[in-house]
């Protein structure tokens, strides 16, 4: 269905090749998972399938990409619209109309299909994606998961043979992500679509993959059966980590598979020691904190205490009030109730003083950046924090990210930009550090580095609160987990207990070793004993 | 129970939204009609009639709730004119109601008089003159409240397809830009709000612009990969379209000039306007041929749309007849003031405006 025939691509002559003499074939009806760290060329490869690379992006392509017998050399992306459907990370930015039904029909209108055909296909697609009850709703009012399903429906209506998805679940909470992924697997199994899917959080999708294409980052692509390619790829979801730790030659693709193997091999592990939570008094106290947006209550009379040296994960579905809580603690969003950081209220102090008490890294880190170079941003941060020049730059080095000072912050990768904003925000040496969804769009290596940074901050005596959807990240880096729903805390306790007791928030290893409270590979002893 | 029932034949049997352009045609007809009269009774009657149609036929959509806004605007216009007429007004003759003390102004303001006798003639003239403008605004407000603006944009000739696509995108992107500006403004506090002056503006504008550019790039890529423009003919539009468009502009311009300025140019104006309209339609047809996009569930144009649109034109027609046959009714003399004269044709005008109530329905919920 998709054939890459000695394909090479570089964005400009002189720049390193993103794809270098790549040849592979994906047969019809396969779900191919694209893995690789940030910047390894996943998006480029995806866009090459429908010709956006190089027709839209520019650059130099050698070799030929064949899709359903058509070459992207002679067919523009618009000519391939009936063959390849592509869906991006953020559906809201690519919607052309404003109503669900119109959006689904848009692609077919462009192809000039007969109105009766369109009518029939819109109904079929609505049913296929299970969104018939949304048909008259404005797109902007839908939740993230619904928007993503509408975006998929909108490309499906043109009845393409190939579906290309670039991290379709990166902005979604685990339940919504599951919905979207379930829809995608339905398409593979029932409709027989060929699907090419790039995804950072492999643990959720690898069980569905027929083949995996790994981009090591040097321009090559390794394609093969999922269990074998994942065993050597540099991306390490928990089950891959487990397989390597236990020296298994192939990777179990599902929790069920892993659990069976552990049983069959008679692997016995002792319960990990309970991490002792610090018993010092709370440095951040919240009393009946409430945030309202008009009629909507985002945070509902919430009381809690947070200690220095403790990392807390804040979990819960989208719209549960996690972000509102963090913003309210910082004081940038109006709230009622009590916030107390070492005897001061960040909401009533000056913004500069508030920054020394509580610092927040927002979900969209780029919102904080506005200067033309990394050096200028660092210098500005030193001034804002009233610290000697060079403080921020030194912090950036400490975070293990070495950036050329002349680079434009907007050209950085997701992980580099997060590190820069983190350094800027930490320059004030705050008592409390708040991170809002920092793991969004990060690959495993960057996530592991972030986990280290977070632990380091706590070890130095900061109180850290991280809101996240990523249970694996929470398991690896936090001491305490709070689960929010409807603006209230519904569970609060050590991460190990909270995460193993709830199925939707338990990491994969917890499911493999249940009922033992193993949550990361680090909990396994060396060497692992066999019974 | 019989299994076969006769098909519903009344035009209003099914509840559906009426074509937006039919409402516009109706409203413009009413607005044009009201612009031709100074008869206070007729102005009030037309305003009440169009408002009545809105109240019975509007949906629950946000734009439908904007009617109050237009009524308020109309009220403000009338009030402002009245205040100016009473204080510095130009008409000081006739029946004196009361007299305001005269204020002496310095020499450089000579020609403006504040205060003086306030007369019934002045008040009545102002009411009918400002009322006419207010009534026209109410008519256009009615069209806004009844016609779904997005649906109206969707129902344009194929030649204007690209323009309407751009407008639809602009309508949905504008609130997103506002949201992104709010988000960035909120984030500024996180850095201590240290930036001032030009830097502060930069701190707001740079991230918002960056957001906007990224958004439009992603939208463009999305549209391209979904086949935008894939049916466009590679051949250029023929010269016929350009020539027809130029001819229609010239004819429409001349027609409007003849109608408004030439003393006996009515016939000439009508011919010229008609020919101009014909040329415009032809030009749009030719230009639209190169794009073979189709429409999903286009708003139907059926009996109720014909009747609604026609009732607007007929209102204007009846008004023209009234102005010709009974000019003293359409434009009653202002001095001495009397009760507005009545004429049977006035009832016809108002009745025609009310016709849509009989042929249209309230749109079903969520489909306005």
Structure characterization notes:
With 531 residues, chain A is of the alpha/beta class. In chain A, 34% of the residues lie in helices and 22% in strands. Chain A has a domain at 2-235: Rossmann fold. Chain A has helices at 42-49, 52-55, 100-111, 115-128, 144-156, 174-191, 226-232, 238-245, 255-265, 322-330, 351-357, 374-384, 391-398, 414-426, 444-459, 471-477, 495-501, 508-513, and strands at 2-10, 19-26, 31-35, 60-67, 70-71, 84-87, 162-166, 194-198, 211-214, 222-225, 282-293, 296-307, 311-315, 336-341, 358-361, 432-436, 463-467, 480-485, 488-494. In chain A, the strands form 4 sheets. A 6-stranded mixed sheet of chain A has the order 6-7-8-3-9-10, with helices on both faces. In chain A, helix 3 packs parallel to helix 5 (144-156) and helix 12 runs parallel beside helix 14 (414-426). The longest helix of chain A has 18 residues, at 174-191. The relative contact order of chain A is 0.10. Chain B has 3 domains: 13-155 and 298-368, no CATH class; 157-230, no CATH class; 238-295. Chain B is 64% helix and 4% strand. Chain B is globular, with a radius of gyration of 27 Å. The two termini of chain B are 35 Å apart. The model of chain B has no long low-confidence stretch (mean pLDDT 84). Classes of the chains: A alpha/beta (531), B mainly alpha (368). The interface between A and B is large, with 76 and 51 residues.
């Amino acid at each position: 269905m998709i054939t890459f025939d000695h394909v090479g691509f570089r964005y400009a002559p002189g720049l390193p090749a993103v794809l270098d003499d790549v040849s592979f074939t994906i047969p019809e009806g396969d779900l191919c998972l694209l893995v690789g760290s940030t910047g390894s060329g996943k998006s480029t490869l995806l866009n090459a399938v429908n010709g956006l690379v190089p027709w839209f992006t520019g650059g130099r392509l050698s070799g030929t990409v064949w899709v359903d017998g058509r070459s992207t050399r002679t067919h523009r992306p618009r000519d391939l619209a009936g063959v390849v459907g592509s869906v991006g990370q953020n559906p809201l930015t690519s919607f052309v109309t404003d109503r669900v039904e119109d959006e689904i029909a848009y692609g077919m209108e462009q192809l000039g299909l007969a109105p009766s055909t369109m009518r029939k296909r819109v109904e079929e697609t609505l049913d296929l994606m299970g969104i018939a009850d949304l048909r008259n709703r404005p797109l902007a009012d839908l939740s993230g998961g619904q928007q993503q399903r509408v975006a998929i429906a909108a490309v499906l209506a043109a009845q393409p043979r190939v579906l290309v998805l670039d991290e379709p679940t990166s902005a979604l909470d685990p339940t919504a992500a599951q919905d979207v992924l379930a829809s995608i697997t339905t398409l593979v199994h029932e409709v027989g679509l060929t699907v090419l899917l790039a995804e950072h959080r492999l643990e959720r999708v690898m069980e569905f993959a027929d083949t995996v294409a790994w981009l090591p980052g040097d321009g090559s692509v390794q394609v093969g059966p999922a269990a074998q390619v994942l065993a050597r790829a540099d991306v390490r979801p928990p089950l891959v980590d487990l397989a390597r730790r236990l020296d298994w030659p192939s990777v179990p693709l599902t929790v069920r598979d892993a659990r069976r193997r552990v049983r069959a091999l008679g692997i016995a592990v002792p319960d990990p020691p309970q991490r002792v939570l610090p018993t010092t008094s709370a440095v951040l106290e919240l009393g009946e904190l409430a945030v309202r947006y008009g009629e909507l209550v985002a945070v509902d009379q919430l009381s809690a205490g947070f200690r220095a040296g403790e990392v807390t994960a804040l979990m819960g579905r989208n719209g549960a009030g996690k972000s509102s809580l963090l913003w309210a603690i910082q004081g940038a969003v109006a709230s009622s109730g009590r916030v107390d950081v070492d005897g001061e209220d960040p909401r009533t102090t000056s913004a500069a003083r508030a920054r020394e008490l509580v610092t927040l890294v927002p979900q969209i880190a780029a919102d904080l950046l506005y200067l033309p170079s990394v050096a200028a941003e660092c210098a500005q941060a030193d001034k804002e924090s009233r610290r000697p020049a060079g403080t921020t730059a030194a912090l950036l080095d400490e975070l293990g990210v070495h950036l050329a000072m002349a680079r434009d912050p907007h050209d950085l990768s997701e992980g580099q930009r997060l590190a820069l904003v983190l350094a800027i925000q930490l320059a004030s040496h705050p008592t409390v550090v708040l991170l809002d969804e920092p793991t969004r769009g990060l690959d495993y290596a960057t996530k592991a580095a972030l986990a280290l940074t977070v632990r380091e901050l706590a070890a130095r005596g900061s109180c850290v609160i991280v809101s996240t959807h990523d249970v694996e990240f929470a398991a690896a880096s936090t001491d305490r987990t709070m689960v929010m729903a409807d603006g209230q805390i519904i569970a609060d306790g050590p991460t190990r207990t909270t995460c193993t007791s709830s199925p939707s928030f338990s990491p994969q290893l917890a499911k493999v070793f249940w009922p033992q409270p193993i949550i990361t590979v680090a909990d396994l002893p060396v060497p692992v004993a066999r019974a | 129970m019989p299994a076969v029932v006769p098909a519903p034949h009344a035009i209003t049997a099914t509840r559906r939204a009426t074509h937006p352009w039919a409402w516009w045609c109706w409203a413009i007809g009413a607005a044009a009609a009201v612009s031709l009269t100074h008869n206070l009774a007729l102005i009030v009657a037309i305003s009440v009639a169009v408002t009545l149609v809105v109240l019975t036929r509007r949906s629950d959509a946000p734009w439908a709730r904007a009617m109050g806004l237009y009524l308020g605007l109309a009220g403000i216009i009338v009030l402002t004119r009245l205040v100016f007429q009473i204080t510095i007004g130009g008409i000081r003759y006739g029946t004196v109601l009361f007299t305001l003390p005269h204020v002496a102004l310095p020499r450089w303001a000579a020609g403006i008089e504040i205060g003086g006798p306030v007369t019934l003639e002045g008040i009545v003239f102002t009411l009918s003159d400002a009322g006419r403008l207010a009534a026209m605004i109410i008519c256009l407000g009615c069209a806004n409240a009844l016609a779904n603006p997005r649906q109206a944009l969707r129902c344009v000739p194929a030649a204007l397809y690209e323009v309407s696509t751009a407008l639809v995108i602009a309508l949905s992107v504008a609130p997103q830009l506002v949201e992104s500006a709010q988000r960035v403004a909120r984030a500024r506090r996180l850095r201590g709000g240290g930036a001032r002056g030009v830097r502060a503006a930069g701190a707001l504008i740079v991230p918002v612009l960056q957001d906007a550019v990224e958004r439009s790039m992603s939208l463009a890529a999305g549209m391209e990969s979904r086949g935008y423009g894939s049916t466009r003919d590679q051949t250029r539009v023929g010269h016929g379209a350009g020539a027809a468009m130029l001819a229609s502009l010239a004819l429409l311009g001349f027609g409007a000039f003849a109608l408004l300025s030439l003393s006996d140019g009515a016939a000439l104006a009508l011919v010229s306007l008609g020919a101009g309209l014909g040329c415009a339609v032809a030009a749009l047809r030719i230009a639209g041929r190169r794009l073979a996009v189709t429409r999903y569930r286009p708003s139907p144009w059926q009996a109720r749309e014909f009747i609604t649109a026609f009732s607007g034109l007929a209102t204007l027609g009846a008004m023209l007849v009234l102005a010709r046959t009974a000019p003293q009714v359409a434009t009653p003399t202002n001095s001495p003031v009397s009760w507005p004269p009545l004429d049977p044709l006035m009832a016809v005008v108002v009745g025609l405006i009310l016709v849509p109530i009989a042929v249209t329905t309230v749109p079903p919920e969520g489909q306005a």
